[in-house]
Amino acid sequence: MSYKGKFRVWRGDSEGGELKDYEVEVNEGEVVLDVIHRLQATQTPDMAVRWNCKAGKCGSCSAEINGMPKLMCMCRMNTFAEDEVVTVTPMRTFPVIRDLVTDVSFNYQKAREVPAFKPPADLKPGEYRMQQVDVERSQEFRKCIECFLCQDTCHVIRDHEENKESFSGPRFLMRVAELDMHPLDAADRQHAAQEQHGLGFCNITKCCTEVCPEHIKITDNALIPMKERVVDRKYDPLVWLGNKIRRR
Ligand code: SF4
Ligand code: F3S
Ligand code: FES
């Protein structure tokens, strides 16, 4: 079964652009990315779209579909009525390069600002020991495919370009929280979370969690516990020091 689907796609570049209407064939079992590819192959050979795996694992095909941040390759066409207009626009939080492709280098910059795991100076490689429960705690965060949909949706930077400098966004606050939970990490992540990565900007709206294609509980399992630890320490700095010593 196939039908003519109605698509409205943003076309343009960093100078500006507009939504353009297209009619494209849609076949049973297809996802939005299939139809975008068919549009590119049959009507708009110059249309820019970033993708790689078509399996929800590379995090490249992030866009906004009817205003919702989603992976185009994981958004099934049978979730729309046949006569519904499907609007596809680039992620709004990042500068457009062309059509559906955005410049996500903001995220790479923020990634570089999180120092790597720092083991205690008196432990040599091979001497690291940690409990299985501590290993498992970080596994959830390691599922991240770096699609940056959480970064795109967070209102702190989505609507406020001026906050980008002082706010790293949910993906990288989650990374800081993961390192802070690591029993062998000796860096002071709590101070950095608050002072350098802007943890205080997050008012736990949970929009990041809602759009995560890996269903990582970013807010409940990373950001809120991190906020709690920062508050504990603010009222009693010895708590932080004591926790670090006890963990080892
Ligand atoms: Fe994407 Fe989820 Fe990773 Fe954010 S945390 S970049 S939404 S996979
Ligand atoms: Fe933004 Fe997520 Fe916090 S959407 S405000 S980082 S809970
Ligand atoms: Fe890889 Fe969509 S193409 S996640």
Fold topology:
Elements: E1 2-13, E2 16-27, H1 32-42, E3 62-65, E4 68-71, E5 85-89, E6 96-98, E7 101-102, H2 105-112, H3 132-139, H4 149-153, H5 155-158, H6 170-181, H7 189-195, H8 207-211, H9 218-235, H10 237-247
Parallel strand pairs: 1-5
Antiparallel strand pairs: 1-2, 3-4, 3-5, 6-7
Helix pairs in contact: 6-7, 6-9, 7-9, 9-10
The protein binds iron/sulfur cluster (SF4), FE3-S4 cluster (F3S) and FE2/S2 (inorganic) cluster.
Principal-axes geometry comes out as: elongated
**Count of all domains:** 2
The major pleated sheet works out as:
5 strands, mixed
**List of distinct ligands in this structure:** iron/sulfur cluster, FE3-S4 cluster, FE2/S2 (inorganic) cluster
Termini Cα gap: 61 Å
Order of helices and strands: EEHEEEEEHHHHHHHHH
Secondary structure tally, helices: 10
Secondary structure class reads: alpha+beta
As residue ranges, the low-confidence spans are: none
CATH architecture of the largest domain: Orthogonal Bundle
Text of the CATH class of the largest domain: Mainly Alpha
Mean pLDDT: 94
CATH topology of the largest domain: Fumarate Reductase Iron-sulfur Protein, Chain B, domain 2
- Give the name of the CATH superfamily of the largest domain: Alpha-helical ferredoxin
| Cα Rg | 21 Å
Q: What is the assembly state of the chains in this entry? A: single chain
Largest sheet, spatial ordering of strands: 2-1-5-3-4
Strand content: 15-25%
Number of strands: 7
The percent of residues in helical segments reads 25-40%
Protein name: Succinate dehydrogenase/fumarate reductase iron-sulfur subunit
Cofactor: [4Fe-4S] cluster; [2Fe-2S] cluster; [3Fe-4S] cluster
Pfam family, one: Fer4_8
Pathway: Carbohydrate metabolism; tricarboxylic acid cycle
